[in-house]
Amino acid sequence: MSITRRDFVVKGGLGLLALGLTGPLGLLEWDKHIAQIASAATPDNILVVVQLSGGNDGLNTVIPHAQGVYYDNRPSLAIEQKNALHLDKNFGLHPSLTNLKKIYDGGKLAILNGVGYPNPNRSHFRSMEIWQTAVPDKLDVQTGWLGRYLDLTTTSDKNPVAALTVGAGSKVFLAKKNDAPMITYPDMFKLVVRKASVTDKQRRLEAFTNMYTKTPDPLLSLVTAKGKTAIKASDKIQSAPRLTTSSSGYPAGSAFGNHLELIAQFIGAGLPTRTYFTMLDGFDDHSNEKDEHALALKEFDNALGAFYDDLVKRGVANRVTVLVYSEFGRRVKENASNGTDHGTAGPVFVLGQGVKGGLYGQMPSLTQLDSGDLKYTVDFRSVYSTLLDKWLNAPSKDVLGSSFETLKFL
Amino acid sequence: MKIATKEAKIQHLLRRTGFTATKKQMAAFASLTIPQVVDKLLNAPLQAPKPPENLNEKSDVSVLVQWWLNTMIHTPNPLQEKMTLFWHGHFTSSFRKVRDIHLLAQQNVLLRKFALGNFRELTYNITVDAAMLIYLDNNTNMKKSPNENYARELMELFTLGLGNYTETDVKEVARALTGWQVKKAERKVVYVPNIHDDGKKTIFRKTDTFDTRKTTDWIVAQPACATYIATKLWKAFAYPNPEPSVIKFVTKAFIDSGYEIKALLKAIFNSEAFYSDLAYRAQVLSPVEYTVGMLSLFPTIKLVEDKTTHALLKEMGQVPFDPPNVSGWQSGPAWLNSAPLFGRFNFVDFLVDKLTDKDFPINTSLAPTTLLNDVLDRLGLSDLSQQTRAELESYLKKSGLSNKETIQHGLLHLLLISPEAQVH
């Protein structure tokens, strides 16, 4: 039996763990040689993580259109069978998701049903934190799952833009050795000095850099560290090849669309960023959900469709995998205000040229519920571990603290 | 001891209770003891500024944002505005969902009225506030099949904190809070008895025919509430990770007073821990605090109405009436992410470009060190670190003092983007 490079890396990681050289979260000082082999295997693979914030109604996203009980529970909200974009005889996508349907038909979209975690938390913020840290059973975890991945593979000194948050912040990149920058507009992402002579500008930049150096004061040292991250990332981004537009049809006036376009530009420009995080708000709908949800999904679908096309046009689509999740799904039964309340498990999307499209996971029963909510069938950490092992070539067990089932979507 | 002298204590107190602590402002309190200063700040006459008139559904929210920023800049009672801002981040609502900014103006008036008032009353009043009813769907919470949105956030975010209620409590509280509707055309809130569930509910082990008043009173009476609110205010005004003993003490003052916010603040501001090393420069200024503080230092520069100010506040991460979600704004280090930090720095550049000698005169006939001290006193940054001070002096020396405008713009730019100017 030949050992592939990936097998070696994963098994190497497990070996070190077995020797007890790791902390509770597997934060071992990753052997440099192994890390190099890991990144050499697929140095160009990129993961884009999209969070749909507010608790996306999973049952109205991937619709179990063959089940009468779905229609019984949702007299005003259910999507009619004939309107769902049929994936097979059991499931269909929300009618807003036409671009996703196209990608699905092209075999590049994996839809994972019933993704969740044990003892679900119905708080938006706690649940988001659980998805971002990948540690459901501990509070105050100070690292995110991709932050731990970063710590195993690089440092901010080596690559200040190894990870980028575009738009709103999260805990996903919180790390011990890395500080991932956040960006919205490249034009504003620098120390602007408008009206000054060249010499004065230079003097100000110099003084600024010197002010933002190490200091013994605890809070000031945090401020200076953050300022340094900003400056280092700014230098990298401002000196990157020109960011070109692709004239792909991103939805007008959508911040989410702008964020995805920026990510495509960065990838196209060859920025050495391997993981991106961005989010789309607007899923915290609880009344008159039918219209609100359709609009939110439409914005999501238009932007993601444009992003996918953009990557193809730029010739970089084979390097990018996109993960889409929401912190939880919704209650099966609708409420009196034509909406749904906080629930549990929901669908996850993974798309990209490297993805084996199709339906994965066991759809939770709509009748055997956990106080009105779906019981998860796939642990979200299985999705992460598959992406880490098979796409980012990083030891999932060291990032996640234990082993999870590998899924077949890659 | 970092806050050793009385002067340092007053400066620290003014920074936390207001937006600036200049030498001139500090001088006004010089003859008083610290408890006297605290009393003076807490008992400053309450303001009730009127929001702009003729707001309608179509009015741009920036009208309201500008009005509030100007209110903060010009108020004689900055603590009341700071508390209003605090409650807006706590009992938050967003124009994106409420849509009618007149209702957000009403909510802002309510938050200001109760800014230093009774927390139990505030909790009840915000529960039946029109903007809140819309924002968290209690407006459509009906007996038939309740909408749990408000009930959950009321306990998770507004009063008790995660882990201090059960899923059953959420469902029962949702039932108890049914019955309210916003008449959007008249901008009035009405109680509609036939959509209220008047049956018995069991909330925190007590069974009763709970209505809204009984429910909010009963939630506030839960021991977790006083601790949760006291901790949040401690963190907002003093420092993160407070010791349990400190929280116990201020929580007791809060409960003993019958949930008076002023009594809680008084206990915080008079405590020894508030002036300990842990408290000194322990807070990151929020973008609104940062911007308001700066604009109030240069009263002749009118930038509140400028679109660039609005855009840069957005980049910094905080536009009033536009919180990212129901938990308000993430504070602390989150304000210091790269893009928000550049937002701050670039706002300062935008501001200093407008300055002329009459807006903030600088006496270039003084020696660099004296000149710097004078500017620091006027900005309220006299306790700058040695490192930053050395850099600024070096900048002054390199630039020479011949070009007044260069000095004014360059020095103020550097001072206001210095690490110290981001914190308080």
UniProtKB/TrEMBL annotation, chain A:
Any matching Pfam family: DUF1501
Source organism superkingdom: Bacteria
PANTHER family: BLL7424 PROTEIN, DUF1501 DOMAIN-CONTAINING PROTEIN
Name used for this protein in its record: DUF1501 domain-containing protein
UniProtKB/TrEMBL annotation, chain B:
Protein name according to UniProt: DUF1800 domain-containing protein
InterPro entries on file: DUF1800
Source domain of life: Bacteria
Pfam family, one: DUF1800
Lineage summary: Bacteria, Bacillati, Bacillota, Bacilli, Bacillales
Species for this entry: Tumebacillus amylolyticus
